[in-house]
């Protein structure tokens, strides 16, 4: 009977080769390019949403300050 470590070495080698083949397939099919593009679009949408929220919040703060005759010292836009 063979030593158990030989079996583990064979399994690890097979998994390493299978993982390498999967990575090569993803590179050749443009998978990473598409993922990068989608991530960039998601980040752009998040940035736009954050800026819109800040504009809305600023307008609301300024409106409330006018109602209460309070002067705000907000950072420039």
UniProtKB/TrEMBL annotation:
Protein name stated in the entry: Uncharacterized protein
Organism: [Myrmecia] bisecta
Keywords, comma-separated and alphabetical: Membrane, Transmembrane, Transmembrane helix
Record field: transmembrane: 6-27
The keyword Membrane is annotated on this UniProt entry: yes
């Amino acid at each position: 009977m063979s030593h158990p470590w030989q079996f583990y070495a064979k399994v690890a080698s097979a998994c390493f080769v299978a993982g390498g083949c999967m990575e090569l397939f993803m590179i050749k099919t443009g998978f990473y390019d598409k993922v990068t593009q989608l991530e960039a679009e998601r980040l752009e949408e998040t940035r736009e949403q954050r800026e819109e929220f800040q504009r809305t919040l600023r307008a609301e703060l300024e409106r409330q300050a006018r109602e209460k005759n309070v002067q705000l010292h907000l950072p420039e836009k």
